[in-house]
From TrEMBL, chain A:
Chief place of localization: membrane
Name assigned to this protein: Phosphonate ABC transporter, permease protein PhnE
Organism: Natrialba swarupiae
Keywords: Cell membrane, Membrane, Transmembrane, Transmembrane helix, Transport
Source domain of life: Archaea
TrEMBL record, chain B:
Family in the record: Belongs to the binding-protein-dependent transport system permease family.
Coiled-coil positions: none
SUPFAM superfamilies xref list: MetI-like
Location(s), subcellular: Cell membrane
Residue spans crossing the bilayer: 25-48, 86-112, 133-156, 192-212, 219-239, 245-267
GO cellular component: plasma membrane
InterPro entries on file: MetI-like, MetI-like_sf, PhnE/PtxC
CDD domains linked: TM_PBP2
NCBIfam families: PhnE
Listed name of the protein: Phosphonate ABC transporter, permease protein PhnE
Gene behind the chain: phnE
Entry keyword Transport: yes
The UniProt record lists the keyword Transmembrane helix: yes
């Protein structure tokens, strides 16, 4: 009698087939996309050369231009700060509406979710296009765009925090005879305060990055200068602007990371 | 007789996260001053009338947007460009993820030497710090208008994001399984394939799908600077003041973005 030898296998036949189909499907879609876009590998070969060429044109960065970009950089930082501040103020009621355990009724819950979804599914730059029409070109339109985009982000994440609070503390405050507002202030808010601070700082840091591109559609900040420089092929100026943006973004990221470890 | 000594009254103060209360107030004041400066910078010279007029224009804008344009020819163009955006996201995800793999291993502190680690980290921070549209606008000038510039920009952004998150997973792997594979006499390459790869594959798939979802969003707007996809059509319609068409385009973008988010959420739930 022969002993049947069994080889151990991690996956059974069905899950192996599924995995294979998934990988194959992905590959086919990518190849089809490649065909659809009529891409050529040679284009990418040329890309390396073009980037090298660009790098030599950008060197050395146009240092004499540096004083000119200080004011637009400060404007960029202002846009991020004010936009975040406005978003913070607006997101608290939105978070309240979109938290299932606190929202007054079904309708307000739906309203909260709609605000969050609409704000989040439209990119900052598209909001900026809209507000440039409404409020004219300039930093104001950019600030409002940043604020409107951030409301959804903060509203969603704060709403999720609110859904995870301890109901006991809320009950304890309301059992002392506190009204609804006082319950929120003393029973609910302290529980989410670290999250509020942390998320706002985090969003501010994202907004600094977002504010650097608003100028492409005329909504103020350093992007206006970058757009002009790129448009006139002034590559050495482009280099100094990109370096300045890198500096500001990495600095704000550092500040944000430090502040968030403190806030937790 | 016992002399009654007056105890100095001490009240309890809530401890602060800052070093002491003076530092705390210092930071609060500095922050308030900074915010006031920013508010002044943005709002100086902006009258209330600009807000009220702006809201009025907003109403007019909504009226010109409604009803969105639905002529067959326009919708076909819209669908065509949306497809182009999706295709761009697919190719850019594939390229970006492929480039990310070596960068991610290079950025894992537990596997490589210090210089390689620092180099990989530098690539990651530069890619993450510069917005995709900035890369795109430069790529458009270097390679001309069209999807190629967009793909390069999105791939570039993918590398920073993907490598950072993947490298964190690589750093978290269980060294015991690597050791046990090594102890069977496996070569360095075999150790990588049988000791490291199986531990990160699920996260790898999840992250790829997650980034694909973000790339769909990116490819929908990157055309605003001429880098291909639906954004280009949006910008054309916008600069011609065809706001009813803008409305159709925005609806198309939102639909695709929400769909991608849904697909990505479903796949990630199944994988993890």
């Amino acid at each position: 009698m022969s002993v049947e030898s069994v080889t151990w296998e991690r996956h059974d036949r069905r899950s192996r087939l599924l995995r294979f189909a998934f990988a194959l499907g992905g590959l086919i879609v990518v190849l089809a996309s490649w065909q659809y876009l009529e891409l050529d590998l040679r284009d990418f070969g040329g890309a390396t050369a073009a980037f090298a060429d660009l790098a030599t044109r950008m060197f050395p960065p146009h240092l004499e231009y540096a004083p000119e970009i200080v004011a637009p950089l400060i404007e960029t930082i202002h846009i991020a700060a004010v936009g975040t501040m406005a978003a913070f103020a607006l997101s608290i009621p939105v978070a309240y509406l979109s938290a299932e355990n606190l929202t007054p009724n079904r309708l307000t819950y739906a309203l909260g979710k709609v605000i969050v979804t609409v704000s989040r599914s439209v990119h900052t730059i598209i909001w900026a296009l809209v507000f440039v029409i409404m409020f004219g070109p300039g930093a104001l339109a950019g600030t409002i765009a940043i604020a409107v985009r951030s409301v959804g982000f903060l509203g969603k994440l704060l709403g999720e925090e609110l859904e995870e609070i301890d109901a006991g503390q809320q009950e304890a405050i309301s059992s002392t005879g506190a009204n609804r507002f006082k319950t929120l202030l003393y029973g609910v808010f302290p529980q989410i305060k670290p999250a509020v601070v942390g998320l706002t700082i985090y969003r501010w840091d994202i907004n600094v990055r977002g504010a650097t591109i608003l100028g492409f559609v005329g909504a103020g900040g350093i992007g206006v200068h970058l757009y002009t420089a790129v448009d006139s092929f002034a590559w050495r100026t482009v280099a100094i602007i990109v370096l300045a943006i890198l500096f500001v973004v990495i600095l704000s990221e550092g500040v944000s990371a430090y502040a968030r470890t403190k806030a937790q | 007789m016992v002399a009654e000594t007056e105890q100095p009254r001490s009240t309890w103060h809530r401890p602060t996260t800052f070093y002491d209360h003076r530092v705390k107030w210092g930071i609060y004041v500095a922050l308030a001053a900074f915010l006031a400066w920013s508010l002044w910078g943005i709002l100086a010279g902006v009258g209330l009338s600009r807000f009220t007029e702006g809201l009025g224009y907003g109403v007019t804008l909504l009226q010109t947007m409604y009803p969105p344009r639905t002529e067959a020819g326009d919708l076909v163009r819209l669908g065509d460009r949306l497809l182009e955006s999706v295709a761009m996201a697919m190719v850019a995800t594939a390229i970006g993820v492929t480039i990310s793999i070596p960068v991610a291993f290079g950025a894992a502190q537990n596997l490589v030497s210090r210089p390689i680690y620092l180099l990989s980290r530098a690539i990651i921070s530069i890619s993450r710090a510069i917005d995709g549209l900035i890369v795109a606008i430069i790529a458009v000038m270097a390679f001309g208008f069209g999807p190629l510039a967009g793909i390069i920009a999105i791939s570039f952004k993918t590398v920073g994001f993907f490598s950072k998150l993947l490298s964190e997973d690589v750093e978290d792997i269980n060294m015991g399984s690597i050791e046990s594979v090594e102890s069977t006499g496996a070569s360095r390459f075999q150790t990588l394939v049988y000791g490291v790869v199986p531990q990160i594959v699920p996260r790898f798939v999840g992250l790829t799908v997650y980034r694909w979802d973000i790339n769909i969003r990116a490819s929908a707007i990157i055309g605003i600077v001429g880098a291909g996809g639906i954004g280009q059509l949006l910008m054309t319609a916008y600069s011609r003041y065809e706001f009813d068409y803008v409305a159709s385009i925005l609806l198309g973008i939102i639909l695709v973005v929400l769909l991608a988010e849904y697909v990505s959420a479903v796949v990630r739930r199944r994988v993890q």
